[in-house]
Structure formats: structure tokens, C-alpha cells
Design goal:
It is a single chain. The protein folds into two domains: about 30 residues; about 280 residues, Ribonuclease Z/Hydroxyacylglutathione hydrolase-like (Metallo-beta-lactamase, Chain A, 4-Layer Sandwich). The protein contains twelve helices and 14 strands. Strand 10, helix 9 and strand 11 form a beta-alpha-beta unit. The relative contact order is 0.13.
């Protein structure tokens, strides 16, 4: 009797999805539907902040993309959908947020509206500026929840034009605390953790994203793995998927720039660090946040094949995983 009282409190959508799950587990329905009724994580962008093609880039690949844009080259972003609760979230608000929010609505179980929440890692151009699309000049949204660490919250509240989003109620800020989990839905747990990076305007965090069955690590930006107070292998061993900073393949990519101005762990360095890792840990790794100079953007490149041969992966637009 109690079970039917609980069912009565569910929305029609929640009732249908739960019945599909029950039928599937009882052998009466398609397993595929049951899987798609859970929590899914989708890669909505794998490129560094400046995008691809990149401003000022005159290389043949950039010129070709300026002439023939490819929707699959978008700035780093993950989308998470909880089909059971009918809620969806973006991890990062990028300059490509309009297309990424739209693409997220196409995931099984997603609704057609704006994301129910946005988790930000830090205040560098490609990771937060997309929240501006929620303002009066664009969507004029109401109360979209934005999760941010204390310094980042302060930055958004006290610097225009972001402060206007707060004042007009376009976004509702929720303060995160390092190491403290939040539960945006009953099936989804998100825990921020600090990582060393260029923190001019805010602290920088990565996220542990946990669904009912699997978990993922998301670290799009970090200076160097050796500067982190955790061992990378331990962090990866503790999850099922790891989306890791792969900005540059090696130190030769930016001949005209001082690499100390834009510190990141080179993929070549990361692979050396991972050389003696167990195969099961290597298979969890997906390099993400690729600069427009990074040869991993070319799926056929020698460097890409080297990464794949090692057991690691390159995060690609549209990759989807069950959590």
C-alpha cells in the first residue's frame, strides 16, 4: 500500500520511467530503454577556450574550418542528464553554450528547456562566459542555478556584466565548498576539489561526478600533475572515467608563446607518467580541452594513434557514457 502511495506522488513522466526500469529488470522490457532511463554523461565539447578554428590562425586546417564550419568542434563541456528526474546539467558555460544546451536536449530523457543547472570550474574565458547568454540581451532566463566556488561566486556578483545576471535573477548562484558533495538530483552527486591553476579571478576546481552506477573525474585545466596534492593514479583508480587536461600534446606547439604563461601538463608528459599504470586505469583516461594546435584533434594523426595504442582515449564530441 505504501508503494502505491509513493507512486501517486510521482509525476506521469517519473511513473513511466520507473515502470520501464522495473519491467526491464524483471525481464519484461528492453534493457536498452532501461539504460537510457538512467544518468548519462555526454561530451559536448573537447576544445580549449579559444575554440577551433582559432582567432588569428592561418593554418590550412583553421582556414578550412572558417570556410566550412564543423559543429563537432566546440569548447570543452560535459552534459549530464538524469532521465528519471527529467533534469539536465552543463559542466562549463562556454562560448558555444547555445549549441551545447540545444544538443543536450536531444539526449534520451532530456527536456526541451534550458539546463536545470550549470557547474563552473573557474573564471577563464572559455569556461564561464557562456552564462552571459542567459541575460537580457539573449535568453532573459529566470533563476538558472549556477554552481560556483566562493571566489568565483564573488567574481560573478561583483563584476559586470555578470553581476547584472545576478541582479536581474537570470541566474541563481549556489556556493560550493571544496570536498563537499551536492546532490542536484537523488541519483546524481557532484563533488568539487581544488586543483592548481592560474587563479587570477577565481579558484579552479575539478569535479567528481557520480551516478547510481559509475563515476567520472573532470579536470579540464591544471598547471601540472606534480603540483597537485593528490597522485593522479589514485584519483583515476577511484573512478570509472577520467576526463583529463590534454591542452597541448608537447611543448613545441606554441612557438610564438611563452609556455610558462599557459601552463598545462603536456600529453607527452602525462603518458610518461602513466607508462607503468595498469591497463584498466589507462582505459579510463579521455584527454580533453585540446588546443587548436593539438594534433589529437585529427583522429588520424600519428599522435592520436600513439595515445590510443597506449590504452588511453581522446574525448570526442558526442561521446556518451552511462553513470
Amino acid at each position: 500500500m505504501r508503494y502505491f502511495r509513493i507512486m501517486h506522488s510521482w509525476s506521469p513522466r517519473q511513473t513511466l520511467l520507473r515502470l520501464v526500469l522495473i519491467a526491464s529488470f524483471a525481464g519484461m522490457g528492453p534493457v536498452g530503454v532501461a539504460q537510457e532511463s538512467g544518468v548519462t554523461l555526454t561530451v559536448l565539447g573537447n576544445v580549449q577556450d579559444g575554440g577551433y578554428p582559432h582567432i588569428g590562425c592561418e593554418r590550412p586546417d583553421c582556414r578550412n574550418l572558417f570556410l566550412r564550419p564543423a559543429g563537432t568542434h566546440q569548447v570543452v563541456c560535459l552534459g549530464v542528464v538524469d532521465a528519471l528526474e527529467g533534469q539536465q546539467f552543463l559542466f562549463e558555460a562556454t562560448p558555444d553554450a547555445a549549441r551545447q544546451a540545444h544538443q543536450l536536449t536531444k539526449v534520451s530523457g532530456a527536456h526541451k528547456g534550458l539546463p536545470d543547472g550549470i557547474f563552473l570550474t573557474h573564471a577563464h574565458w572559455g569556461h564561464y562566459t557562456g552564462v552571459g547568454l542567459l541575460g537580457r540581451e539573449a535568453m532573459g532566463a529566470s533563476g538558472v542555478e549556477v554552481f560556483a566556488m566562493p571566489r568565483l561566486r564573488d567574481f560573478l556578483e561583483n563584476n559586470g556584466p555578470w553581476s547584472q545576471l545576478v541582479d536581474l535573477g537570470n541566474i541563481a548562484l549556489t556556493t560550493l565548498s571544496e570536498g563537499t558533495a551536492v546532490h542536484p538530483t537523488p541519483q546524481l552527486t557532484v563533488t568539487p576539489f581544488r586543483v592548481p591553476h592560474r587563479d587570477e579571478f577565481s579558484e579552479t576546481v575539478g569535479y567528481r561526478i557520480e551516478g547510481p552506477n559509475k563515476s567520472a573525474l573532470f579536470i579540464p585545466d591544471i598547471d601540472k600533475w606534480a603540483k597537485w596534492d593528490q597522485k593522479l593514479l589514485d584519483a583515476v583508480a577511484d573512478v570509472d572515467l577520467a576526463f583529463l587536461d590534454g591542452t597541448f600534446y608537447d611543448g613545441a606547439e606554441l612557438g610564438h608563446r611563452d609556455m610558462s604563461e599557459v601552463p598545462h601538463p603536456f600529453i607527452a608528459e602525462s603518458m610518461t607518467l602513466m607508462a607503468d599504470w595498469p591497463e584498466k586505469e589507462l582505459q579510463k583516461v579521455h584527454f580533453i580541452h585540446l588546443n587548436h594546435t593539438n594534433p589529437l584533434l585529427n583522429a588520424e594523426s600519428e599522435e592520436t594513434q600513439r595515445v590510443l595504442k597506449s590504452g588511453c582515449h581522446v574525448a570526442r564530441y558526442g561521446d556518451r557514457f552511462q553513470l
